[in-house]
Design brief:
The complex is a heterodimer of chains A (364) and B (259).
Chain A (H helix, E strand, L loop, with lengths): L4 H11 L14 H4 L22 E6 L3 H10 L3 E2 L11 H6 L15 H11 L8 E4 L2 E4 L13 H21 L2 E6 L3 E5 L5 E2 L15 E5 L2 H18 L4 E6 L13 H22 L3 E3 L2 H6 L17 H14 L37
Helix pairs in contact in A: 3-10, 5-6, 5-7, 7-8
Chain B lengths: L1 E6 L4 H10 L7 E6 L2 H4 L3 E3 L2 E3 L5 H11 L4 E2 L5 E5 L5 H10 L1 E2 L10 E2 L1 H22 L5 E4 L19 H5 L4 H18 L2 E3 L7 E3 L2 E2 L25 H15 L9
Parallel strand pairs in B: 1-2, 1-6, 6-9, 7-8, 9-10
Antiparallel strand pairs in B: 3-4, 4-5, 11-12
Helix pairs in contact in B: 1-8, 4-5, 5-7
């Protein structure tokens, strides 16, 4: 007669007195660590270094990173704003023009290479093919969304970019911690120069031409190489800056990879997640916060996404950020009662990527 | 023609001018209704009655003290002329004072912004105030003047100094900004079924500043006696000029004056 499950467990206890899993804390086991625990267990994230209210925090990244900056500001953390909203400019106008969203008006930085390009530019490497024209107006192709109507001349684009880069330099110099949300592996590059863009040519400005621009889908090595170059460039400006990396949980709005958008999304996020894992394991000054895991966790009773299956629900964002802040002792570690004010709905998040929806079949 | 002139403390200039204009516009019967700026901003129209709600007892008492009535019935009036706040001008002036628009030639060492950001600031700032004004008066057609620019006295060191007016007074693009503001304001009011009555040119010293002489001898609208001389409120000469501008805009017949 076969032993019952209870008898098997008793036998195991007697015969397997030593196991690599015995003595591990609850957080190491799904049951207890996740099943039966809160959505954001207090021991989910153990910071490598502290962030305090006095820390000077530089924020950048893809759309989801906007929530990070907002929550940190709400919690009273000293988030750097090197291009503050000028007095008199209404909030809605400021937001449309990239003020108050990140530590400077660079708009969304979707890829590591885009960030690296910007920092290289600060240290004397100009970006080639960085201005796009459309209908007699000119755009800074590195941040086409921040002046979405474009400017009247190339000279004006150059002048505003010079002002912007000064601000970026000041912000990075001032930073104790850079919080960077990695968003995409898919991008469009200028074939001749390798310049990478935050939006596909032709989305906001510029014109897509297959002879000039090409699609890239970075792999783990590409992103790691870019990040290491980025980190080295920043350390030349600010040797003590630390990183907190996150991966955006927001699925791709569209893929140009030829795959279905679901596996394309998983591939992209997986690459970025592996990059973060590698970097945070290899470097004491690089930490990883698992916001991606919280959103994609099966623990959400009603799902983590809005009806579009893409925008993260504001209450989930609030719980994520409460978890992050609690880990740093900046709010009480009881997320259900000490959430920061609800994040703004995703409708308010500036996200050029969503413009790709206008290219769907049947969309005029 | 029955005319209502309603508004903030800025109706004081018109109130003081009205007696001297009685002979000039014999066909006009003018009534005034005013509340201090912040309070005027809070009241609205229910039915055809404009003014505070019955439950707002302090405001009702204030209205009675100033106007003799708690509310004013708008129905009997052929025309309603409202002199309100700056209609969004303050944020526009602050932005103009503290930034340079990249498309314009001036470079004053302040942050550069795009022309779109500046134009959107004008549009949004004006829309917020004109929407509110429209909502205060339901669907009643209005003629509207913004509060007068303060006088030149606010643009120099002294007791009347007012930022950002002193900053805009030195702005190399002040005339352009004023033209943009007036164009946008006219369009915004027209879109909301309101007619803009601009501040008369003969009262303007330079963009955004009224002639200093218009600010001397201004009377408090609440009693018509206390002299303000704060250079934010204007005198009867200014009031007469604005009434003339309003009369012209509604085609009110004027009795020729003796040579």
């Amino acid at each position: 007669m076969r032993p019952t499950a209870r008898e098997t467990a008793k036998i195991a206890q007697k015969t397997m007195t030593r196991s690599p899993y015995s003595g591990l804390p609850n957080r190491a086991f799904w049951r207890g660590g996740m099943a039966g625990a809160s959505l954001v267990p207090p021991d989910l994230y153990q910071p490598k270094f502290p962030i305090t209210k006095e820390s000077r925090v530089f924020t950048a990244g893809s759309c989801f990173a906007q929530h990070v900056g907002t929550a940190m500001k709400t919690a009273g953390i000293s988030v750097i704003d090197a291009e503050p909203t000028p007095r008199g400019m209404p909030t809605e106008v400021a937001k449309r023009h990239g003020y108050g969203i990140y530590s400077a008006r660079f708009g969304n930085i979707y890829t590591v290479k885009q960030f690296r390009q910007m920092v290289d530019e600060l240290t004397g490497s100009p970006i080639e093919d960085a201005i796009w024209e459309k209908g007699g107006r000119y755009w800074d192709a590195m941040r086409p969304g921040v002046d979405a109507r474009g400017l009247s001349s190339v000279e004006h684009v150059v002048e505003l970019r010079a002002q912007h880069l000064q601000a970026v330099h000041a912000a990075l110099t001032d930073a104790d911690v850079i919080v960077f949300t990695l968003g995409l592996t898919e991008a469009w590059e200028h074939l001749a120069t390798g310049t990478v863009y935050p939006t596909a040519p032709g989305t906001i400005a510029g014109t897509y031409d297959a002879e000039t621009y090409g699609f890239v889908n970075y792999d783990v090595d590409d992103v790691l190489d870019e990040f290491r170059a980025l980190d080295a460039a920043i350390r030349r400006i600010n040797a003590s800056a630390k990183w907190v990396l996150t991966v955006s949980p927001v699925p791709l709005a569209a893929t140009a990879s030829g795959d279905h958008v679901l596996p394309a999304t998983v591939r992209s996020k997986s690459v970025l997640r592996v990059v973060c894992d590698t970097l945070s394991r290899d470097h004491d000054h690089i930490d990883y916060f698992p916001s991606y895991e919280i959103v994609t966790s099966p623990a959400h009773p009603n799902g983590a996404f809005e009806d579009d299956l893409r925008s993260v629900k504001p209450d989930v964002v609030a719980q994520i950020m409460a978890g992050f802040l609690a880990s740093h002792g900046l709010v009480e570690p009881t997320p259900s009662t000490n959430l920061p004010p609800a994040a703004e709905p995703d409708d308010d998040v500036i996200c050029e990527e969503i413009l790709l929806n206008t290219f769907r079949p049947g969309t005029s | 023609m029955k005319i209502l002139i309603a508004g903030t403390s800025n109706i004081g200039a018109l109130k003081s001018a009205a007696p001297r204009l009685a002979n000039e516009f014999p066909g006009a019967e003018i009534t005034f209704y005013g509340l201090p700026g912040g309070k005027f901003n809070e009241v609205s129209t229910r039915g055809t009655a404009f003014g505070p709600r019955r439950a707002e007892t302090d405001l009702v008492a204030m209205s009675k003290r100033i106007n003799g009535v708690p509310r004013i019935d708008l129905a009997p009036f052929d025309r309603v002329f409202v002199i309100t706040d700056t209609l969004g001008l303050a944020p526009i002036l602050w932005l103009a004072a503290r930034t340079d628009v990249v498309d314009w030639p001036s470079r004053r060492g302040v942050p550069l912004i795009s022309d779109a950001a500046f134009e959107e600031t004008i549009a949004v700032s004006i829309a917020e105030r004109t929407d509110h004004l429209r909502s205060q008066f339901a669907d009643i057609p209005l003629h509207v003047a913004r509060s007068p620019y303060p006088t030149q006295a606010v643009a120099r060191q002294g007791p009347h100094l007012q930022k950002p007016y002193d900053e805009i007074a030195k702005h190399p693009e002040a005339a352009r900004i004023e033209a943009m503001y007036n164009t946008a304001l006219t369009a915004a009011l027209t879109a909301r079924d309101m007619v803009f009555v601009p501040q008369p040119e003969d009262t303007i010293a330079q963009p955004f500043l009224t002639l200093e002489s218009c600010g001397i001898g201004a009377l408090d609208f609440r009693n018509g006696e206390s002299v303000l001389d704060d250079h934010r409120h204007m005198n009867a000469d200014f009031g007469a000029s604005l009434i003339h501008a309003f009369a012209l805009s509604i085609g009110l017949r004027q009795t020729p004056t003796q040579p």
